[in-house]
Specification:
Layout: H1 2-11, H2 21-31, H3 40-46, E1 93-98, H4 112-115, E2 122-125, H5 127-133, E3 140-144, E4 149-156, E5 164-168, E6 196-204
Parallel strand pairs: 1-5, 2-4
Antiparallel strand pairs: 1-6, 2-5, 3-4, 3-6
């Protein structure tokens, strides 16, 4: 990803003519005190955990081993705020998204070795919902929200509770995030990607 970002920023008039990821890391370490003693060479040799402020620092095994910097941890009570969108009669299921073990974001699907293990999207659906929708593992379904729709295969599993469908967002052929809400957390402005209302329709049988 750094290559794409560097090329884009260079075209915008701010040259980022890096040759390797190591060059970028070295610059970051020179500007960030907690990374000051870190390098690809040290990381490759033994692994290294920040803070590591100097070249002779062994790294920090536990950031807060005995206590936090200020003493005890500080907990803040907050009021629950419901999601911006919940299931209803038109969109009766709740979609949650996340990563799978074999992939990270959108780059690893281009790895032939990794894709030989898991090369396409499978939406996870609870057996109760699968029975109601008359779908089985391997069936093709359409998942629709108020913002868009995607098609995907199904894996029937009790890893998800009834009423919930779970999908990853790794595959360009199944752009799951066209379904998600554009609502954001009022404080962090993080997108509310884990909760939105959808409906699921069977398109074809696995056979």
């Amino acid at each position: 990803n750094w290559q794409s970002i560097s090329e884009m920023v260079t075209r915008m008039g701010y040259p980022m003519n890096y040759n390797t990821a190591e060059e970028i890391f070295d610059e970051m370490a020179s500007l960030t005190p907690s990374y000051g003693g870190m390098s690809f060479e040290r990381i490759d040799a033994q692994g290294l955990q920040w803070p590591c402020p100097t070249a002779d620092h062994p790294g920090t095994k536990f950031l807060h081993g005995a206590s936090f910097t200020r003493g005890k941890g500080l907990f803040q009570g907050i009021e629950h705020v419901p999601p911006a969108e919940m299931p209803d009669d038109e969109y009766p299921m709740l979609l949650s998204t996340g990563r799978i073990l074999f992939h990270y974001n959108v780059t690893t699907p281009y790895s032939a070795d990794i894709s030989s293990i898991w090369n396409e999207e499978y939406a996870e659906v609870n057996p109760d919902d699968a029975s109601r929708l008359k779908i089985v593992t391997g069936d093709q379904v359409k998942v629709t929200s108020r913002r868009g729709e995607v098609t995907t295969k199904v894996e029937v599993t009790d890893r998800v509770p009834p009423g919930v469908i779970w999908m990853s967002f790794h595959y360009t052929a199944t752009p799951t995030n066209v379904l998600t809400s554009d609502a954001v957390d009022p404080i962090t402005k993080t997108g509310e990607y884990k909760v939105c209302a959808v409906k699921v329709e069977r398109l074809s049988n696995a056979s």
